[in-house]
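Checklist before submission:
- one chain only
- standard amino acids only
- sequence pasted in full

Submission:
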Amino acid sequence: MALTPTDRRSLADSLRAEIYSGEPDRSPGTVLSGRKLAEHLGCARKTLIGAMEILEQEGLIRRLPKVGYMILTPAAAFEARIDEHGHVHPVLEQAGDTVEAVATAVQKAPDHVAAALGVPPETSVVLRQSVLSRSGSPWAIREMYIPRGIADVARRLLEADLVDEAAVMTEAGLAETAHQHTTSARLATDIESALLKSRTAVALSVRRMSYSGEQARSCDFMNIRADRVTLTDWSGDVPNCVESGVK
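Returned file contents:
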């Protein structure tokens, strides 16, 4: 009988605990035999493969055809800051920090986005979605929604994957005059878990609203891996506090 997604997830959790049990033969770089793992856990090889695919998607192992599975070093945890402008960035930048565009498209605004922007449900918006990674491992998904009614802005934002959205809107006469940000926690969706390569069921979500006068010019979400990133903030001259200088 085929395993359900819940069964596969449960087996993947058991495998994760087994692989990262602290045993001497479980260190990063070690290659494990799929056959021996299946025997140890008392499951069929085909069943094991389905669960191992989950761990591979999470960046914990790498499948080596006809050999086995290599254990990889888990992504390191770090601190990110919500700065005074409501933007989220690592407290300390690293050379391996990257931003990859995932989607740039026109779509109907989800209900929560329409409510935030103060527009009727299903109003057309421009979605710009990207994944932020550190050392090749994703830590956040950024989703930015801009009303498509801002015609010139929409056109320019659809022209390129990576662009300075704030600069585009300012050049179009929509300089930011105010912003508001809120932080909450919620269950990550299956799509978000796949993009983040994370088993965590919880995502930290930072919503940033940008205004130009009375007009809401964008709604920006940063959905962050709660199992990897700690959000922090400070004010004044805090001893031993190092800021990256990113604004």
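Reviewer check: Residues 38 and 45 are 6 Å apart (CA to CA).
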